[in-house]
């Protein structure tokens, strides 16, 4: 079995497969899904996920937007990047390079969890000229106290150990492991979604990329600069999120000058997968108010 997901095998029944293409940018081969017509909308998934995370949401958004959704480096079917290119700043630079290769300048951007942090970094660094940003349970704040001091060194140690991704992937052969991890996000994922997460978790290269991101992630500078984030920011929060405390959205809202918070009751960290219709409605409403879409 290959360490990396193989498109010819693992992608044979991939969600929204007809929208997939492979693009060379910045020395990497990216898997990207493009669908729809209208104003440009960029979607970035979170750590350990891939384009499958948008399986229900992307077709709904494509009714009104030209949607671009890549697999981040090392995730899903995109090529793995060197360790030093998995930091927040380097990821932001890589996504900018991809957008230039695609000749896309999105009017609106949306990111889930770590994907939201990449978008915020891009906006702060002048790598995006979007009219609005949506954070879906975004990981925009640094960990506080002991967890903050311990998390990054531990993640780095795990990342540098080539055995850890392989051991985890072997364990993922047991569906109960991935199912338990998904439940711990506070979300109730359907059978198809859980099956796709398990398929990726059984690939050591995909697991290694997630660990590389976590080992390289430094949100302290991003948090310090949130008061400089000038783009309008919609924070969509799952009220049952057990990965990122929903209360963080209020803190982010107090820091970012043009932020607003919308809570989705009964949903967890993967709220956009649990309720794609409700999520799409919030995004469309925001787009109308930002004059990206006509009401």
Structure notes:
The chain has helices at 57-61, 88-102, 114-124, 145-160, 163-171, 175-183, 191-201, 204-216, 220-225, 247-255, 271-274, 276-289; strands spanning 20-25, 28-35, 40-44, 66-70, 108-112, 132-136, 233-238, 259-264. Helix 5 (163-171) crosses helix 8. The chain has an 8-stranded mixed β-sheet with strand order 1-2-4-3-5-6-7-8, with helices on both faces. The N and C termini lie far apart (50 Å). Helix content is 41%, strand content 16%. It contains 12 helices and 8 strands. With 295 residues, the protein is α/β, with parallel strands linked by helices. It has a domain at 17-148 and 219-289: Rossmann fold (3-Layer(aba) Sandwich).
What distinguishing features does this structure have?
eight-stranded mixed beta sheet; 41% helix; globular; Rossmann fold; 295 residues; alpha/beta; 12 helices
Layout of strands and helices, then pairs:
Elements: E1 20-25, E2 28-35, E3 40-44, H1 57-61, E4 66-70, H2 88-102, E5 108-112, H3 114-124, E6 132-136, H4 145-160, H5 163-171, H6 175-183, H7 191-201, H8 204-216, H9 220-225, E7 233-238, H10 247-255, E8 259-264, H11 271-274, H12 276-289
Give a quick precis of the structure.
This protein has 295 residues and is of the alpha/beta class. It contains 12 helices and 8 strands.
Major β-sheet profile: 8 strands, mixed
How much helix, percentage-wise, in residues?
Answer: 40-55%
What is the alpha-carbon Rg in Å?
18 Å
Q: Multimeric state of these chains? A: single chain
What is the CATH H-level superfamily of the domain at 17-148 and 219-289?
Alpha/Beta hydrolase fold, catalytic domain
Number of strands: 8
Q: Which class do the helix and strand fractions yield?
A: alpha/beta
Can you name the CATH architecture of the domain at 17-148 and 219-289?
A: 3-Layer(aba) Sandwich
For the record, the CATH class of the domain at 17-148 and 219-289 is Alpha Beta
If you consult CATH, what is the topology of the domain at 17-148 and 219-289?
Rossmann fold
* Major beta sheet, strand line-up: 1-2-4-3-5-6-7-8
> What does the overall shape look like?
globular
Calculate the terminal CA-CA distance, rounded to whole Å: 50 Å
Mean pLDDT: 91
Quickly count the helices. 12
Instruction: Give unreliable regions as ranges.
Output: 145-161
- The H/E string reads EEEHEHEHEHHHHHHEHEHH
Q: Assess the beta-strand content as a share of residues.
A: 15-25%
